[in-house]
Design brief:
3 helices, 6 strands, SH3 type barrels, six-stranded mixed β-sheet, alpha+beta, elongated
């Protein structure tokens, strides 16, 4: 196997599959804010090859929205349920992706509400807490 050529770049080089996708998002108070389900990229066109010598694409936003559970229970979540988190709100990338302080409200509980309202409530005893 040959090594990839080292090309000078600005910023921090990340492998999307290793460092971003499926990582937990934590807000500035270390509370869960979602999971990175997808990315929005700049510098590429859909279904077109990237010509050699061109700068690589850059992440513009992280998309969060419980995609895996939605696919298990019937397809894709509506695009309105995928929340775009601008890359400039990312404080650090490690085992988790930490976000900077912001006024943005993260709706990470919509899937739990959807499951409760459409599936769990139809199970006997699913409309109330155990006694």
């Amino acid at each position: 196997m040959t090594d990839l050529p080292v090309k000078p770049h600005r910023g921090h080089l990340l492998d999307a599959r290793l460092h971003l996708l499926d990582r937990q998002l934590l807000d500035d108070e270390d509370d869960p804010a979602g999971i990175v389900d997808d990315l929005e990229l700049s510098g590429i066109e859909l279904d077109k090859d990237i010509p050699g010598g061109t700068e690589g694409p850059q992440v513009t936003s992280l998309l969060a929205g419980h995609v895996v559970a939605a696919r298990i229970f019937g397809g894709q979540p509506p695009m309105s349920r995928l929340q775009a988190i601008p890359w400039n709100l990312v404080a650090s990338v490690g085992v988790v992706v930490k976000l900077k302080p912001t006024d943005v409200v993260f709706d990470s509980g919509w899937m739990e509400r959807w499951l409760r309202d459409r599936i769990i409530k139809h199970i006997p005893g699913g409309k109330h807490a155990a006694e």
